[in-house]
Automatic annotation (TrEMBL):
It comes from Paenibacillus paeoniae. PROSITE patterns: VWFA. Gene3D superfamilies: von Willebrand factor, type A domain. Residues 1-86 form the VWFA domain. InterPro entries: VWF_A, vWFA_dom_sf. This is VWA domain-containing protein.
Amino acid sequence: MRQILLITDGCSNVGLSPIVAAAHAKSEGIHVNVVGVLDHGDVGELGATEIEEIARAGGGLSRMVNTRQLSQTVQMMTRKTVVQTIQLAVQKELQQVLGNGSIEALPPEKRGEVVRVIDELGESSGLRVALLIDASASMKPKMAAVEEAIHDLMLSLQARQGKSEIAVFHFPGSRHGDDCMMDLAWTDHLNGVHSIFPKLQMGGTTPTGPAIMQAVDYYRQGEAGDYGRRGRHETDGMMGDYVV
């Protein structure tokens, strides 16, 4: 299963629309979750609307939270999207087999079995998360909370039965650019994430759309092997062999 987790506090202002980019990610089988980080102000109506629309276009979740709630929210969104992905795949299979994609339409005993399988798949399925960190100037006072949230997310992923991998990007890559910089390539050694934060140079524009597109390209380039082949067919045969 593949996710992009975007942590930001405001509106994009450079490059491709992040809503268009999120829709492209969804078409590639990648869910886009967005956490809008509040501090002593507000991202404003325009920013809040954009955050919601990015997640909607990307088939993911969006939440507006203050820094104290950030850690819990990041973990919740990652896990909830995993469950939703599995539920959609299971319902698709039920529709193919039974002509009805609703879990609720099953007899009670069968429904309970399907729910149990979904729970097991949520813990045992392989998971990749591309983490996109907004490093624009306004995020600087919030970065300590972001670091703490990512630390807790790493602990949560390590507790899963299935293999969990993460890649980390920040944007902008340069102060006046519309680029995105990769800080950490795919790894299941999750403790290495902490080393990136002292190196982040805060400031510049907010090229959210280009950052999402770069994460999608990285998924595509990095999954030419077996994992990529599973990813492109990740919803096939879930109930039969528990492969996601």
